[in-house]
Design brief:
mainly alpha; 10 helices; 75% helix; elongated
């Protein structure tokens, strides 16, 4: 799975599965009714408008915080040359399922709180479920945009400026070359395999940098 669009693809899969599961009628009830009952038990006897409003506020805050954690983690990891694993993204989408669908339900019911007290309640479970299914795709696209933005702003090696004169010095001894390779090698331990391969294949990098990148890859394969 291409790293640049990993979150988008996973989000799209969750969206499709969630959307078509709407027609099973059982899946929407499984994710919404337990959360709705939880808020009813916590708040106690009260008009459903009060229960629903409390649920909307709480679920909105949790959704916002969860997405912020995902986006910030994605950006920070990418700046350090790493990526969120597919497993971590799948885990996030599974957890968020118990938040976004109940949130969509309460938002839909808020247009007419009387739905909670008559036969329309059951339809209020199914109708918003299909729409909230697209949240996975939106979150996935946003995550990839942030990841790719972080890729374009990767911090260059801090030693580059200080060792550039040595690279262009044609009279340096072989011991100096080895020392320079060691410096690169130490720095490249934090880079991903994708970045190391980019260094090796890119003509703009010096031979010492390519040697160090190749050594790092070889070490990881052992």
């Amino acid at each position: 799975m291409t790293k640049e669009f990993n979150a988008t693809k996973i989000g799209a899969i969750f969206t499709l599965v969630s959307f078509f599961s709407t027609f099973t009628f059982i899946v929407p009830m499984f994710f919404i009714i337990p959360v709705a009952l939880m808020f009813e038990n916590i708040i106690g006897p009260a008009p459903y408008s009060k229960i629903g409003t409390t649920a909307i506020i709480f679920l909105s805050i949790v959704t916002t915080l969860a997405c912020l954690v995902l986006f910030v983690s994605t950006f920070r990891l990418r700046r350090s040359g790493q990526d969120l694993t597919s497993g971590a993204l799948i885990f996030f989408f599974v957890v968020i399922t118990f938040i976004i669908h109940p949130l969509g339900f309460f938002l839909y019911v808020s247009t007419n709180w009387r739905m909670a007290n008559d036969g329309q309640f059951i339809f209020a479970i199914f109708q918003p479920f299909a729409f909230t299914s697209f949240a996975y795709f939106i979150i996935g696209v946003t995550t990839d945009l942030i990841r790719n933005f972080g890729s374009n702003n990767l911090t260059p090696p801090v030693q580059t400026e200080s060792i550039t004169p040595k690279i262009h010095d044609q009279q340096k001894e072989s011991s100096d070359n080895e020392e320079l390779i060691t410096v690169y090698f130490s720095h490249y331990r934090t880079k991903s395999n994708e970045e190391l391969e980019h260094i090796i294949q890119n003509k703009g990098w010096q031979s010492e940098a390519k040697i160090a990148a190749q050594r790092t890859l070889n070490e990881r394969k052992q």
